[in-house]
Protein 1
Amino acid sequence: MLKVGLIVGSTRPNRFADKPVQWLLEGASARSDLRLTVLDLRDYRLPFFNEPASPMATGGIFTEPEAEAWRKRIGEFDAFVATVAEYNHGPTAVLKNAFDSTLLEWQRKPIAFVGYGGVGGARAIETLRGAVIELHMAPIRHEVNIAMEPYLGVVQSGRSLNDYAYLVQSREAMFDHLVWWGEALKAARQRTLAGSSVAARGPAS
Ligand SMILES: Cc1cc2nc3c(=O)[nH]c(=O)nc-3n(C[C@H](O)[C@H](O)[C@H](O)COP(=O)(O)O)c2cc1C
């Protein structure tokens, strides 16, 4: 069973993020191929990046204890899902900071995004795709986009994300592909540990 971390990408009070988080946990609980664990950025209290050097220069070690705890926690997972709120056409600062606050433990692991907002968080997700590639991650094609109509349906009309069949289909396709990539990359990382392969670290580009 693949160990998947679910990163909650918004920390503000009464955030919408809790709706997709519960819905993703519900979907994951019906599957036998992955185990989803919530990584709520509210619980980690990460400082905004405050290191004397880039993690590329320190072997991926952080001086801030909260960042050290975060990167060690990230190391426990084989794949990730992040909920993506869109703030001014980009990801939230806390989510981008969470990516910056780990280096090696992200590498060669897949990630999927679940966005919401006017256009389903698509602009913020596209921004994150570039960032996570720089971290040597593998962002998968399948994503969930909770756009204006279902967003308002949940917030204003008491609807459930399960009322939107296309969202449920997107969630399941996303999980299917995340597990495929997660198992493939997990096996490949294990082969690398056992012997030969190229090093994942390299100069920043
Ligand atoms: C500072 C700020 C900027 C926002 N900018 C956008 C935006 O560019 N695009 C969008 O679709 N929604 C935008 N929104 C609306 C958010 O999609 C909406 O508030 C959503 O609930 C935020 O996620 P959260 O509740 O989990 O924090 C913005 C909200 C805030 C607070």
Protein 2
Amino acid sequence: MKSDKELGMHTGISRRDFVQGMAVGVAGVAGMGSAPLSQAVAEASATAGGSSHANDYPPSKTGLRGSHPGSYENAHALALEGKGFPEARALDERYDLVVVGAGISGLAAAHYYQQRFGSDARILILENHDDFGGHARRNEFHQAGNMRLSMGGVHNLEWWNFSDNVWAFMKDFGIDVQAMREQRDFAYGRTAKYDSSMWFDKETFGVDKLVTGLAIDVPGGASDAKIDEIPISEEGRASLKRLYARTDTVLDEMGEQAREDYLRSISYPEFLKTYGGLTDDAIALFNKLLHGGWGAEMRALSAQEVLEEGFPGYQLVGLDVGEGRWDYPVAMWPDGNASLARLQVARLIPEVAPGTSAENIALASFDYDQLDKPERAVRLRLSSTVVNVSEANDAVAVSYIRDGEVVSVQARHTVLACYHVIIPHLCPQLPAAQREAMKYQVKSPLFLTNVLIRNTDALDVLGIDSVRCPGRLMENIFTFRGINTGGYVHPIDDTGAVALVMWGMPSPPDSAITRDDQHRASRAIMLGLSFEDYEREVRRVLDGLLGPAGFDVANDILAITVNRWPHGYSLEYLDLWDDDWAPGEAPHEIARQPFGRITIANADAGASAYTQAAIDEAFRAVSELPAGPG
Ligand SMILES: Cc1cc2nc3c(=O)[nH]c(=O)nc-3n(C[C@H](O)[C@H](O)[C@H](O)COP(=O)(O)OP(=O)(O)OC[C@H]3O[C@@H](n4cnc5c(N)ncnc54)[C@H](O)[C@@H]3O)c2cc1C
């Protein structure tokens, strides 16, 4: 195995920092070439993404991002160590509304508040990160005078179940999802010129081996010849071939409903073993395949949940999955849903990004210095962790920590749009049953790493665009290009610098049994890894995968941004772990009850890990606020 030096670990740091500091004006965005770094040095200009503070402009920061160092320590001290903080110094600031959390939901709450109480309402939004958008985070890279965008968290809008509210919201912001869909050639590698592929690594499988034209999770995605190339036992390969070829059905004697109930009571790996006849090493190939999609290890999911998505074995239980999970409506921006967050901020505080619209949002210049100005009706305060929210005397006092000091402001109303698990610690006033219900929301951890590579030469030599890596930390890799929305253009066939997205979650150890314990164990692994650990993993994988095709791992990686989201997807109820609650009795319904002048938003309140849920819950939270004076 290569040493750190051979992998370019140490030379990479200065390069990474340099790329971060570089920048462009909006004019140079489209058609980024693959100029060498020396040329990039010469072409670097003075501003980043239009910000006046190139090195401080959050979207351009690389290294450990997402829940970045410095953003969560105070919340963890409060929630995990029960730490008390000094009494807050009261600021001379009083607002109509204080929102906790500047994710899509918190920003939407501010929007709905203006609609309900007037656009002159004084609003303060507090956010613990150094950027807004919550999970909807923008990653910007600059090289050779051009900008490459990628998503740092939320990928897209999936509009199959938008409510009327959400449609109205989109219309209000000028977002035409159908038009956006047509401007998107990117499809996670599925409709690109190359087939799906899998990479098997030496540490796990005894050999570094790329198999192109192989997708074990898709109907028809694994021919016998391709299965023969998978480096597992002969028996394992034979069991896979048998499963894909089977046309019989199982569990017929049960009848349809009883069979479905039964399939909801066993895990998918259990099904593969008992009814699919797979060996353990063949089953292990599937363990991580839904890390990105569901934020869960396969053993946390029921057979029914996975088979309905068209995973192998669906034919054994008579399911007709058709196009299955690939056939759904999706719209994307080149920075994921960060553009949606930016559209909202530009509406709430126009001075931050004058002249911004849905048509130019991906390229719009954002001046973060304008976010928090006393003369404006709406203020957005970053790097501010709320540690206490209490209601007394017709007002709500909100305390937060910023720059190491605890301070407080007063509000007529407060919307808590933050993760639900922190709320019982912020707001001990809430009834015990409500606090208990909030603790049910154990979110799944996810990371999304962007690796800017110099060009796609090695990928083109190998004939790959997306790769599943069943043995590695970040299981799913794909190039991110071909999304031409919001004014940005990056053709799907561009061969220059591109962000390789490495996406998924750390697998929990076998000792973690329940879903929640699995999430907690994955989170502990995630938070225990340093940037250097992630960087070493990135370099090791890209060297093994692309090295044989000429990728020089010490020179061809231009930047690495690891977005880690220890509290990622909102908990959605799963067959194996959650009850069938009567209406009104599910934990999220108990958790989101209004409490006087305090109401509860966030996608957690909908038990649904979608942007539409974040918006719907904001609407409800604002409509529940009492109208009386305060
Ligand atoms: C990696 C990833 C990919 C995703 N992809 C998709 C997708 O493709 N499509 C989709 O629809 N959904 C996706 N989601 C789900 C996503 O959670 C929702 O779409 C939506 O963005 C949630 O918004 P929110 O405002 O409810 O929560 P969040 O985005 O979590 O925002 C809450 C904010 O509150 C802040 N906060 C927490 N505690 C405090 C405190 N004490 N003080 C101050 N601030 C605090 C948090 O830091 C955060 O910024 C994805 C999620 C992740 C993590």
